[in-house]
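Quick one: structure tokens for this chain, please?
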Amino acid sequence: MKRILTMAAVLIALSVSAVDRIVEEFGVPPTYPNINAAVTAAVDGDRIIIKNRAGDIPWIETISITKSLQFLSYVDNGFFIVQGNWTVTAANGREVTIIGMRNTAGNITGAGSSNLRETKVRVMDSHLVAGFIVFNNDAFDVQLVGSRLESGYVRINFGNVVGNEVTSPSGAEAVRITPTSTTFANDTCHIIGNKLQGPLSYEGIYVNTRAQVVHIRNNWIRHAWMGIEVQGGNTQGVANLIWNNSVQGYSGSSTIYGINLANTLTGSIWEVMNNAVGSTWAGNNRGINNDSGNSGQINVYFNHVNAGMSVGVDVGFTFAGSNTTNQPVTFNTDGTLLNGPSAINGGNPAAPFYDLDLSIGDAGAYGGSYTLTNFFPLHTGAARVYMTGHPFNVRQGSTLRVRANAFDR
């Protein structure tokens, strides 16, 4: 009898499989009349496919997600339009994916707890008109890809921020990465190919972690205090990279900084290379700044800082060389160089850092193989391979291994 009951339980389990649940205004079974109804009926692994209301009026709902679900637009490569806060509750093994949300007024946040990084969240090809994305909890591992926040900010502890446009309101960094865990995971937090604008007295990018390797690459940052600030750093001697960023100060109230390094830990290594730093503010500007408390190894080379700054490249770094501080570095509104004669073909001249046209690499966000062109414009309907990792040097007889990060519906 026990065996029969066990077999029956297995058959019941096998009969329950993930399904697509369609949300449609005034929907009747098998569709659902609102998003919450579909979420309530769903089981782990279901896809919630959302049709827009007549006239693209937002679905006005507060959504609490306590299952592994995907949320997608009914129209391929389109947006589903909502208004309200969405909260993901942490749980071991939970995975939540949101592709193509347009939220006219609402946030996406995390709550609860799970084991370290055991709750996976993806937000891709989405548009928050007035809202933030906050998962400042070590339970969450977040992939934010190809999305736009018109008046919001990003705060996560673990994950990647790739190919987004973020304009933050006063009182918040555009992107903040600050895990509480100090356990070194020997993996990489990528902050790559973003367009970021930070407000007065806050950073475009702020990172303080010893739990991961950090790659901050090919970002276009406009800021009113600090473009990039990093602290901490893994103590395992694995290099953190600040490469090929374009940073422009545009206003300020006291001193503003292009790239600032502070309180780096003994055993950490920071490579600051191929960045272009300028400012349109007439006040006190410091290009690449050696702030207080640094105990890490900091190497600064092939960077180009606008002439006339109070401090171009600070003193006291472990190594500094091949930087220019006596030439103009100015930008167009999209981050391309308006005037940067030293930065054009002015990056590290080694072949692995060449531009896509195989010329010597430019400094700034449009230089090298991770050029900002790869990530913009947003939401084009193209394949969602949003990051690749590959060797920069290929030697005869070696096997070329390429890792691609992608997700599609």
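The two ends are 43 Å apart (CA to CA).
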